[in-house]
Write a structure and sequence with these properties.
Blueprint (H helix, E strand, L loop, with lengths): L27 H17 L6 H28 L8 H7 L1 H21 L3 H4 L6 H33 L4 H30 L5 H28 L3 H7 L4 H12 L14 H28 L3
């Protein structure tokens, strides 16, 4: 039998797969920044993520709003002459829920990008570091503002349904919105800075809770000791060293709020300017620290 013939080598073929230049609109940095903001804000409430991711933020949102709904029901049914709680006091009372929300969502917003090393992909183009930090900061502020302002809106609508004085309620509602806006800015900055220090979400959660609870516990303890020793002035100044008492001092001085300090010994208007300057400095400092942090990430 004749020897088997060797198979002919395969011929190279060039396929035209139709590469074309992109001729559509180039949306640029502003679109990328808005998209990152929207994605981060939705992610804070688990929207666009798995069902498990929605459970905790939605539960905390419900817990935040439930007392307001109960107060409205009591005010309407009992025909009260005023709401059971001031607008400016509500967030102070519910600070534990706010802290849990921040501790859960701030690491979700930034730690995952650090852990999976996706930050360099953001910074490839067209987005820059300032866009990333601004979008993340604005998204966390917005998430916290929604969490804290929604109960105030429930209280305000309920007060109008109970036929309470429109001018007084509108003034109180506006003061409450200013208060929770400052609180949201402050907490967003602190939470993101702490969470951005580690790529591990669990460590970020624990660190945020520790910063908020330990600082408040220490300040409250020292204020209690100062009260027992009749050092009233020290009570007011100690509020500078905790985020929630810092907000409390500002709203006491400028928003006609009753102070949560021991026996209501809040800062005076003059001391309130110091509180306001410190609060604004912490917010600006948090933004600056985030910018510095992301100069080194992934490079």
């Amino acid at each position: 039998m004749p020897p088997e013939t060797a198979s002919a080598p395969a011929q190279d073929v060039i396929h035209n797969i139709g590469y074309r230049n992109y001729s559509g609109a180039r949306l640029g940095r502003s679109y990328a920044r808005r998209s990152l903001f929207s994605q981060s804000l939705r992610g804070a409430y688990g929207l666009g993520r798995s069902a498990k991711s929605k459970v905790l933020p939605m539960i905390l949102f419900g817990v935040m709003c439930l007392p307001a709904a109960i107060m409205v029901a009591v005010a309407v049914s009992a025909k009260l002459s005023k709401l059971p709680v001031e607008y400016t006091r509500y967030a102070i009372i519910m600070q534990v829920v706010i802290a849990l929300f921040l501790a859960a969502q701030a690491p979700q917003s930034v730690s995952r990008d650090l852990r999976f090393r996706t930050v360099p992909l953001y910074f490839s183009r067209p987005i820059e570091r300032v866009d990333y930090v601004t979008a993340k900061f604005a998204a966390m502020f917005s998430a916290l503002f929604i969490l804290t302002a929604t109960p105030l809106l429930i209280l305000y609508v309920g007060a109008l349904l109970a036929k309470l004085d429109f001018a007084d309620q509108t003034k109180g509602f506006a003061q409450g919105l200013v208060s929770v806006a400052l609180l949201s800015l402050l907490f967003a900055g602190i939470g993101l800075v702490v969470a951005a220090l580690t790529p591990r979400r669990g460590f970020g959660v624990a660190a945020v809770i520790a910063v908020l609870t330990i600082s408040y516990g220490v300040v409250s303890t020292v204020q209690g000791i100062a009260l027992q020793r009749d050092s009233v002035d020290a009570i007011g100044w100690m509020g500078l060293f905790s985020p929630i008492t810092l907000v409390d001092g500002v709203q006491t001085a400028f928003l006609s709020a009753s102070s949560a300090f021991p026996e209501g010994h809040g800062p005076s208007t003059a001391a309130g300017f110091v509180y306001l300057l410190v609060l604004l400095a912490v917010i600006a400092g948090s933004y600056g620290l985030l910018m510095r942090r992301y100069r080194k990430v992934g490079l």
